[in-house]
Amino acid sequence: MTATTGLRWLVVPRPDTPEPSRELVGGKAWSLWRMRSLGLRVPPAFVVTTEACAAYFERDELPEGLTDELTTGIRLLERELGRTFGGGERPLLVSVRSGAAISMPGMMDTILDLGCNSEVEAALAAETGDAEFAAEVHRRFTGFYGRLVLGCTEDLDELADTGAVRAAIAEDVGEAVPEDPWEQLHAAVAAVFRSSRSRRAMAYRKHYGIPEDLGTAVTIQAMVFGNLDDDSGTGVLFTRSPIDGTREPYGEYLPRGQGEDVVSGRVTPKPLSHLAQRWPRVHAELIAAADCLDREGRDAQDIEFTVQNDELFLLQSRPAKRTARAAVRIAVALVDEGVLEPGEAVTRVTAEQVRTLLRPEIAAGAGEKAEVLACGVGASPGVATGVVVDTPEAAQANPGCVLVRKSTSPDDVHGMIAASAVVTEQGGATSHAAVVSRALDTSCVVGCGAGTVDALVGRTVTVDGGSGVVYAGELPTSAVDESEDDDLRRLTQWAQRATSVTVTTTGAAGPVFDADSEAADLGEQLPAIPPGTKTVRGAVFCTPEGVRAALDAGVDVIVTPHRLPVLLAAIAHQRSAT
């Protein structure tokens, strides 16, 4: 799988090599191989495998031979780029990025600008002719290393220079950021491994049923600098709207920024139209690449990109996290486009997503009479009512509340999982809060402005993540009818053809076993379905557990108010049983 033989812990994803195993190299490195294979411009990289991660946790140290192989990988990057790691007239800096086999956006650590020290800062200043840029690279790297490797808990982002950042780190943790780039690299790889077992990563895996021992690969990639000059920037592009599934590019661009600036939510980026107006050639190249990746990936893609000195580089492409509405629209659209067959399309939507989509909406006219407390960008649709709290710990202690933050970070994920809605003062539609809320199908409004936390905390509010409005109090809602939605109606038809059980809303001929009549005696237990039963009804048969019990008992017909969630649960059970 590699262009270099004799490597145990490393893979070099190059276009002239066979497709690497996603389980071995992680989704991020696999996407680099795919993009390079398609002829797209990607900074060169190599990857430390998930096997090395497993070996690290066996002995709590880098496995034997890995440090030598890291040297080999860096030498490959040096030869390809004509740069030198740790010094020289053209210094090489790298990013050290996590990447599990199953996408976990923002849950593990990434360290940028690694390899920077005082000597490299001077060389970078000489090469670019911009001492301020070089100093900013050094300051940023020092902060990354201090937080993610040394465990510094101080707020380092607002400190003026590298010296101040170093001093704050040393005072907080009693350690210094090393000048030796090789020491930096070895420690950073270990830190990324450890981040796969962080509190936030464990909470995410538990919520989505991902194996606890999944681990992570570590991608080491040559840096490109979106913060280099006025002809540089960074951004995120979704090939289809992750909010409603519309077939049009959706994303943001931040001039003179790095990817971390966009994701963190601390800065509100500009719309992609800014890139189109400022650099139409680069924008056209980006859209062409996005169309290619959407087509080849047979799904909506989430693409990270950087522009350095008017040249486009793609950093990652992965299936986009999306709302339930977007999942439904995209699945149906891909059938219409001839990309998917209906039988595959119904596997792209889960029963839980449809149940989410059928949640009540604000009743017609109710919003017109209500007091508006805050407005921002609707980042994840849905309506939720709850008491506002301002810390993830408070959210976890009060499930169903509304979590309001200045901006969110991976350390807030446990609270975001518990909350019914998320609201932020800062950030845009591709910020951490927005992306994670869409993955959770949690109502989210971002960019409401300074003072929002203080104005809302302790109040009962209703959040409309579609319109981007936060209302005072609890607003009345109305139910959604799946039969009136064309996409849901078509999915229901396809799903009924894909499963043997008949799901109906109107009942069936013959005797019916009604589980609701026994619910009071059974509590949360599944009822015992009498042998030979062919038709069942009751709330329990709207749940995945109830659907499994009905199918395992040989039931032919399930009567339920909403057909599609039950059909999709039946398909999922049938697929898992084969």
Describe it.
The chain has four domains: 223 residues, 2-Layer Sandwich (Dna Ligase, domain 1), CATH 3.30.1490; 98 residues, ATP-grasp fold, B domain (D-amino Acid Aminotransferase, Chain A, domain 1, 2-Layer Sandwich), CATH 3.30.470; 118 residues, Glucose Oxidase, domain 1 (3-Layer(bba) Sandwich), CATH 3.50.30; 80 residues, no CATH class. α10 packs across α11, α12 crosses α14 and α14 runs antiparallel to α23. The chain contains 23 helices and 26 strands. With 578 residues, it is of the alpha/beta class. The chain has an eight-stranded mixed β-sheet. Strands 1-2-7-5-6 form a five-stranded antiparallel β-sheet. A five-stranded antiparallel β-sheet has the order 10-9-8-11-12. It is an enzyme of class 2 (transferase).
The CATH superfamily title of the largest domain:
ATP-grasp fold, A domain
The assigned structural class equals alpha/beta
Largest sheet: 8 strands, mixed
What is the end-to-end distance?
Answer: 31 Å
| Helix percent band | 40-55%
Low-confidence stretches: 519-523
Query: What proportion strand?
Result: 15-25%
Give the total of beta strands.
Answer: 26
Q: What overall form do the CA principal axes indicate? A: globular
Radius of gyration: 25 Å
Q: Please tell me the overall pLDDT.
A: 91
Brief summary:
Helices cover 40% and strands 19% of the residues.
Search tags:
578 residues, Dna Ligase, domain 1, D-amino Acid Aminotransferase, Chain A, domain 1, Glucose Oxidase, domain 1, 5-stranded antiparallel sheet, 26 strands, 40% helix
